[in-house]
Design goal:
By secondary structure, the protein is an alpha+beta fold. It has seven helices and 28 strands.
């Protein structure tokens, strides 16, 4: 397979219009030099970090013989996603590039980024869980390699630069629960897990989200079980967690999302409220400060962000979607079509710009509901054949 791809790449390098060191493709959609200035600037800004990743003993050699690296990188980006792990095994230089942020950027500019649905699914025997992946049509199901470290609960999951991050949580060993600060990353391009830097504070049942390429971890419970107000941010370029301004009040069991470059934290409980909190904490990274709103959701059992809208399901009402519009900070309720028992809850997933609602009951009559926010009025709801292999614990969408 690798030899076949090498032959194909060398054939590409000899095609008319492909000249080393110059504009190499005659087709506009295949030529970086024809890309908008903004995209060229974005690509060039990331090159310094990629060069540092590739600085090893093979640094003096080209990625592909007799081709400039820009052309070689584009050629590697054309390889189908399913064959990338094999390509990453050819040499250290290829593997470093395929794991880099620039690789995803090149694939995106080439229009080759694929969308995948990652689901954490409970095993049918009830003895554990595993990650499984489906493509944008809900097909080609496969399982991820087991995640390193002990089995955890209460962890956070977020996607950044096309990679899945699983953070913190707690594990029970010999009957004792221990909070963790460990962070693991799964890269689908090489089909493997890696260990990242630990968080500054061990925590579980906390809120987390990606905003402008940075990962935020907010509140939760600490090693002694007390609620936390601490907040930290992770930069994948430096592999470093940094503590930032804390919340005004400790908060646990909450969730977070990003809109218009700001971090929104809602739900859960606070030490300063009786019961569940309706306050929304909003962090502005430019001002490095928090403010608050008062019209949040409480006791949220599922949530997902689609475009500029947040979709929530509250424990007290499993038959309606609560939809938050970030443009005017308003909520509206959307009734769910009748399906199965009215007490059945759901987990959310997002695929192809649509919201999937996976039933928490594994009955034959319980189908996956699909909500299309862009459909004509009255046609938003459908059913889908996409289903996890077991009970869905959580899901995220990865583009790589």
């Amino acid at each position: 397979m690798v030899i076949l791809y090498l032959n194909v790449l060398m054939i590409i390098s000899k095609m008319p219009g492909c000249i080393a060191g110059k504009k190499w493709f005659t087709e506009p959609n295949m030529c970086f030099s024809n890309l908008p200035n903004k995209e060229n600037q974005t690509l060039s800004k990331s090159k310094h970090s990629v060069r540092s990743e590739l600085s090893d003993k093979d640094d003096d050699s080209s990625i592909l013989p007799r081709l400039p690296d820009d052309v070689s990188k584009y050629c590697l980006a054309l390889v189908p996603h399913s064959d990338l792990p094999a390509m990453a095994g050819v040499c250290k230089r290829w593997r470093c590039f395929i794991q880099s942020k620039e690789f995803i950027m090149v694939r995106k500019l080439a229009g080759l980024v694929e969308e995948w649905l990652f689901l954490l699914t409970a095993d049918k025997e009830g003895k554990g869980s595993h990650w499984e992946v489906m493509d944008c049509e809900g097909q080609n199901r496969r399982s991820l390699p087991p995640m390193p470290g002990p089995t955890k609960a209460g962890f956070g999951v977020v996607v950044v630069n096309g990679k899945l991050l699983v953070m913190a949580g707690y594990s029970v060993i010999d009957g004792t629960a221990t909070a963790s600060a460990e962070v693991y990353q799964y890269n689908s391009c090489v089909n493997s897990w890696s260990r990242l830097s630990n968080m500054n504070v061990a925590r579980y049942d906390f809120a987390c989200a990606e905003v402008n390429g940075l990962v935020y971890a907010v509140g939760g419970n600490g090693v002694d079980g007390d609620s936390l107000s601490s907040v930290e941010v992770y930069d994948s370029e430096t592999d470093k967690w940094t503590l930032i301004e804390s919340l005004r009040r400790p908060r646990r069991g909450c969730f977070a999302c990003g809109f218009e470059g700001k971090l929104y934290v809602m739900g859960g409980r606070s030490s300063f409220t009786i019961g569940n909190s309706k306050f929304v904490d909003v962090y502005n990274p430019e001002r490095h400060s928090w403010c608050e709103m008062k019209n949040g959701c409480v006791m949220v059992t599922a949530h997902a962000v689609l475009g500029k809208k947040l979709f929530c399901m509250e424990w007290k009402n499993q038959r309606k979607l609560a939809i938050f519009n970030s443009e005017d900070n308003t909520w509206k309720m959307e009734p769910l079509p009748l399906t199965g028992s009215s007490s059945i809850g759901f987990r959310f997933g997002i695929l192809d710009g649509k919201l999937l609602l996976f039933s928490l009951e594994e009955e034959p009559t319980c189908k996956t509901l699909l909500y299309d926010p862009n459909a004509a009025p009255g046609s938003e709801w459908q059913t889908s054949e996409i289903k996890p292999s077991g009970l869905c614990l959580c899901s995220v969408t990865v583009k790589a």
